[in-house]
Amino acid sequence: MQSSFxxxxxxxxxxxxxxxxxxxxxxxxxxxxxxxxxxxTSYEFGSVVANNPYIDQAIYHSxxxxxxxxxxxxxxxKKQSYDVIYDIHRSLxxxxxxxxxxxxxxxxxxKIWRINKQGWERTLLIQLKINLLNKNFSQxxxxxxxxxxxVSYSLNPKTELFxxxxxxxxxxxxxxxxxxxxxxxxxxxxxxxxxxxxWPVAYFQTLISELLEHKWKIILVGGKxxxxxxxxxxxxxxxxxxxxxxxxxxxxxALLSRASFVVCNDTSIGHLAEAMGTPAxxxxxxxxxxxxxxxxxxxxxxVEKDLPCRPCTRNGKGxxxxxxxxxxxxxxxxxxxxxxxxKLTSSD
Length: 348
Fold this sequence. Notes:
The chain is of the alpha/beta class. It has helices at about 15-20, 20-30, 65-80, 90-100, 120-130, 140-150, 165-175, 200-215, 225-235, 250-260, 270-275, 325-330, 335-345; strands at about 5-10, 35-40, 55-60, 85, 110-115, 185-190, 215-220, 240, 260-265, 280-285, 300-305. The strands form two sheets. A six-stranded parallel β-sheet has the order 8-7-6-9-10-11, sandwiched between helices. A five-stranded parallel β-sheet has the order 3-2-1-4-5, sandwiched between helices.
């Protein structure tokens, strides 16, 4: 393959998954330094990769498009004559786009590189508890695999984000105005994309109370309209600093880079933190390490309970199927999480 060519990379969601795509851009540019990389993503989540020096062009598209809008997108992409489409989503939408760009009347069409989502393996693990997945193989590595097949050395799966100086300065001002010293606070992410992945708010209350007794500053983080940070803010009033829903993704990343560490559920907060070099103590309930979303930094920790009912879902959707609801989360006590925090802080 020539050194100068055009690559279309596709990933529409979710925020955490898009963070995990970032090694792909860097490693592509290392292997093909003259390539032109276009990232097709969503308005909702795509801004998290803004300012990425390895992306030459970003195309933002609504995930609620009409069929006409999708066809317009396809027609505009056809005009670009891409050499490769790197499908990191493998959704119905991305496959439709690939099929239309590949099947042209007068040109050869681009090569298609696709990830293996291992859907059947995940289904076997969820439904029959037959585990054919590698627990040490991360989603970051899965996203890189179509490229890994093309080189003889190991690619670097480290994630990275690039807040602007303005975004960093915004966070520094917020911290200064609220008397929160950098690296002397803990970010708490009590929400998740689905309620089934949320550690109980009462447990977060207990943990935060103990952290406050040890003179830690606490900042709540999360998205707009999430109930868990609101409940914690109401409980602690002015004792915690609530920035949930007030920052865009890269501002959140800049904030997390200044934290000592983050405590969160299986959600994007942990991925944002680790992309900025901040350790994450991540609580897993219905999901498991084998799905590829476990934290990866040396000081990061995955807190979980080994139960025969896990995993029961791919993403936290659905009702709990056992009598003692969400035992996978309720059996993880605040003391267990606090012990991991003590180990982390004692190693500093």
